[in-house]
Amino acid sequence: MSTDHNDYTKTGASSGKELSYSTWHLKYATDAYNVAVGRMALNTPWTDPGFGGSKGTGVLGMYTGLEGWAFAAAVFNSTDKASGEGTYLSGDLENVFDNRDLYAAAAIGSVGPVNLQVWAAKMTDAFDSSVFAQADVAYEGFTFKVQANQLELAKFADAAAREFKDDKGLFWGVEAGFAMNGFKVGAGYTQNDDEMPIYTLNADDAGMIKAGKQIYYNTTNALDAETMFINAGYSFDKYRVGAGYVDASIKEDETATKDYDMDEIYFDLGYKYSKKLDFSAYYSIYEGDEAKDENNELRFQAMYKF
């Protein structure tokens, strides 16, 4: 049995703290099969598996008998912290995506130099179906990734959120980069559906392509959101520095005749003290169409891996 540390999360408007269940699981494994039963982090394209992130109690099975491929299926109930910040993920809809049963299956592998993964999932009373697909390749410093996700809201979730023109939505994105001798550059593009924009349960999730430090909170699940981004960085010894720019637009609702535009510039730096301890910081300047929609954010982080 493996366990991890209890995590503490700040409650809504309260200044107090509550104790979340620690994750734990029992695992049986052979050369080709393994099965885990217990409370585990939900490491899917739709959820946030990070510290204090999404967890569920259930069963995860995996087959690795085909060289280069892994096939998985899982059933989780009482999903925890599945939803978080992101446009339209608030109020009644946020509650819809929490404490639900999640069914998921995945195939992950490679064909030649191309890495592939396909996921399918269903969450009771939240979404009837969702299919996520990604292909990525790396060659001599060049990287390229393309991904898409289609999600069909359950009727209960659609009614709790609002009446979109459709209950099915599509997100897609591309990202490319090049790295050599410590230097790296990257660029990307994402597009949300213009009739049903919801595609993920948490703006912090690690699965989907996203840009910037602040702007993706306003573009995640936003109607007809479009983002274009570039970034660059340099690493030397234990240090790293970088900068990026994001240009984005959304429609505030279905009746909008004009897009709401926003952009962000950010600078970041980091210091890797050891294999387990890493320090990082960024400064972000965010601006929207209206003068009041401005925010400068400075953040420091120290991460220790056990």
Description:
With 306 residues, the protein is mainly beta. The protein has one domain (2-304): Porin, CATH 2.40.160. Helices cover 5% and strands 56% of the residues. The protein is built from 3 helices and 18 strands. Strands 1-4-5-6-7-8-9-10-11-12-13-14-15-16-17-18 form a 16-stranded antiparallel beta sheet. A two-stranded antiparallel sheet has the order 2-3. The longest helix has 7 residues, at 155-161.
**Strand-residue proportion:** over 45%
Describe the global form: globular
Rg over C-alpha atoms, rounded to the nearest angstrom: 20 Å
- Give the CATH level 1 class: Mainly Beta
* Number of DSSP helical runs: 3
> Reading side by side through the largest sheet, how are the strands ordered?
1-4-5-6-7-8-9-10-11-12-13-14-15-16-17-18
Class based on secondary structure composition and strand pairing: mainly beta
Per DSSP E runs of 2 or more residues, the count of β-strands stands at 18
Q: How is the topology of this model organized?
A:
Blueprint: E1 2-3, E2 8-10, E3 17-19, E4 24-29, E5 33-41, E6 55-63, E7 69-80, H1 92-96, E8 102-111, E9 114-123, E10 127-139, E11 142-153, H2 155-161, E12 168-180, E13 183-191, H3 216-219, E14 226-236, E15 239-250, E16 260-272, E17 277-288, E18 294-304
